[in-house]
Amino acid sequence: MSSAHRRYGHRVLVQQLLVGLGAFGALALLGPKLLSLEDEIAAEVLSAWARLAVVALMGTGALTLARLRADQPNIEALARSAGPRHPQEIERVADLPTILTMRFFALSSVVSSALFIRGIRPDKLDDERAISLLVLAITIHGAAALPHYLLTRAATVGLLERSPIEQVGALLEKAELYQTPRRRVTQKLLLAVAAPVLLVGVGAVLTAHAHLRTFLEQSRQTTAVLIARAALEPSRSGRGEPGRADAIAAAAELGFIATRRPERLFEAEPSFERENDGQIAVTVPLDDGRAVIRFSANLDPAIGTWGALTAILAVLVAGAAGLMFGRVLAGDLLHATRRVRLLGTDSVLRGATQIARPARFKVVARLGLAIEDLTARFRVFAAAQERALEAREAAQRMRGLLFASVSHDLKSPLNSILGFAELVGQERLTPAQQESLGLIATRGRELLGLIETILDAARVEAGQLTLESQPTDVAELVSGAIRKAHELASDVNADIAVEIAAGLPWIPVDRAYATRALAVILAHALRVGTADPSARIVRLTAAFADLNGDYIRIEIDYGSRDVPPAELEALFNRQTTARGRGLTLGLSHARSVVELHGGSLEVLGALDGRPLCLAFFPKTPPHVRPRLSSFPTLG
C-alpha cells in the first residue's frame, strides 16, 4: 500500500468513525429523552446501543477497507497524477463517496435493528417503544449519511483533480450524454431539503407519541389505584366476595386485570413496576391484603397513523420543493455550461461574453459573472496573440525571402568560380597547383551544397517547396545519393556498403530532393566515422518496411558510436549543433524532404550503441500535403 493510498484510506476511515460515533451518540442522547424512557430502561438501552455501535463501526470499516483495497491501483495512479488507463477506472473512484455512504447507512440500520434480538433488547422494553427507537435510529443514520457523503466527497475530489484532462473530458461527455450531472444536482438538492425535514418530522412524531403514551400511563395508573381502593377495599365496597368479583370483571372490560392477594404490604403507598412484557403492574395496599392491577398503555393506532401521515406529508412537501429548486438550479447550470462551451476564440473576439440568463440562484449568477470577467481578459490576450502570430508569420516570410535572395546572389558567382576552376584544371599544372585547385573545387562544392540547403530550407519554412515526384528505381536513387555523398564529403576516403533487396518496386519521389536528402545523411555518417578509430564501414540497406509492402525502408548504419542515437535525433530536429561542417542543417532539411514525400525518418540505436537512421518512402504518393513534424531552422 502506497503512502498516498494510505493517507486517503486513513482520512476516509477517520471521517467515517467520527460520523458513526456522532450518529450513535445522538441516538443515545436523544432516544431516552424523546421516548420518555425510565432511568432503568434508559441505562439498558444505552448499554445496548454501545455494543451495537462497536459492531456497526467495525463492520462499516471492514467494508470500506475492502472497497479501498479493490480500488488501490486507481487511487495510487491518481495520487501520482498519472491517471488510470481508462475513464471507467476514474468513474469507479468518483463513485466511492456514494457507495461508501450507502454501505454506511445500510449496515448501521441493519445493526440497529438487532435491538429486537433477545439478549440485546432490554427485558422491560416493549415492542412499541422498540419500534420507535428503531425508526429514530434509521432517521438519525439517514441524516448522518449526508455529512458522511460530503466529507468522503471532499477527500475524493482531491484525487480527481489530478486526473488527466483527456480522460476526465471523456467521462464528462459520457455523463452529459446520459444527463447524469443534471439528475445528480436535482437529487442532491432534494436530499438536502428533505433530510432535515424528515429528521425533524420523525422526531416530532416520536416525541408527541412518547408524551401521549406517558400521559396515558399516568392517567391509567391513577385509574388503577382508584379501582383498587374503590372496588376491592372491603371497608368501602361492603359487598363481600361476590361484589369484588363483579368489580374485577368490570375492570377487566376496561383493560385492567385486577387480582387480590391476602399478603399485606408494609408500605402505605401504591407501587408501580413495568414488567417484561411491557405491561404496568400497580400494587395497592388493602386492609385485608393487597391488590395487583395490570394494564397496558398502548395508544390507539390511529394516533400514530395520523402522526406518521403528517410527517410523510411534510417530507413530501419538502421533497417537492427540493425537487423544484434542484431542477431550476440544474437548468441554470446546464444553460451556463452550454454558453461556456459555445465560447471560442472567434466568439470571444467578437465580444460574445454573456454566460447565463438572469440566474435564479446567486451561485450561478456569480459563476456567470466570474466567467464573463475571465473572457473579457481573454479577449485582450487572444487579440494580442493573434497579432503576435501574424507578426511571426510575417517575420518568417521576410526571413525566408531574405535567405533565398542572399543564397541566390551567392550561388551565381560561386557557380562561376567552380566553372573557372574546372577550366583551369584542364590546363597543365604543377602538383602543388593541382592540389590548390582541388581544394578550391572541394570547398566550393561544399559551399554550393550549403547554399542549396539554405534555399530549400527557406522554401520548406515558407511552405513553398513543391516536389515533382516521378517513378524512380530504388537502386538508381541509392547510387545517386552515394555519388552525391562522396562529393559532399570529398575529404573522407571511405566506402559505403550497399545491400538492396530484390523485387523492390519503383517509388514516386522527386529525384533531386530525395537524392540530396539521402546524400546529406550518408555524408554526415562518413564524416562522423573519421573521428572514431573503431568505426566500421557505413552500410546502406534498402528493403520492404512491412509485410504489406506499402513502404520502402532505406536504413543507414553509421558504423560509429561517436554520435549517440539521442544526439543524432536532436540533430535531425535541429535542437543542437555538432560536428559535420554545415551538414547539420542539411539533416533537419533531409527529414522535411522525406516527410513531404509522405514518409518518415526515425533514429534508432543498435545493440552495440551505433545509431541507425531509417527513412521510409511510400509506394504511392500522398493525396494531401503531409504535415511536417519539425521545420529546418535557419537561425
Automatic annotation (TrEMBL):
EC number assigned by the record: 2.7.13.3
Q: Which residues cross the membrane?
A: 12-29, 49-68, 130-151, 189-212, 306-330
Q: Name one GO molecular function term.
A: phosphorelay sensor kinase activity
Could you list this entry's UniProt keywords, alphabetically sorted. Kinase, Membrane, Transferase, Transmembrane, Transmembrane helix, Two-component regulatory system
State the Pfam families in the record.
HATPase_c, HisKA
Q: Which reaction does it catalyse?
A: ATP + protein L-histidine = ADP + protein N-phospho-L-histidine
The record's listing under InterPro entries reads:
HATPase_C_sf, HATPase_dom, His_kinase_dom, HisK_dim/P_dom, HisK_dim/P_sf, Sensor_HK_Regulatory
Q: List the SUPFAM superfamilies hit by this protein, alphabetically.
A: ATPase domain of HSP90 chaperone/DNA topoisomerase II/histidine kinase, Homodimeric domain of signal transducing histidine kinase
Domain Histidine kinase: from-to ranges: 405-603
Protein name, as recorded: histidine kinase
Q: What is the lineage of its organism?
A: Bacteria, Pseudomonadati, Myxococcota, Polyangia, Polyangiales
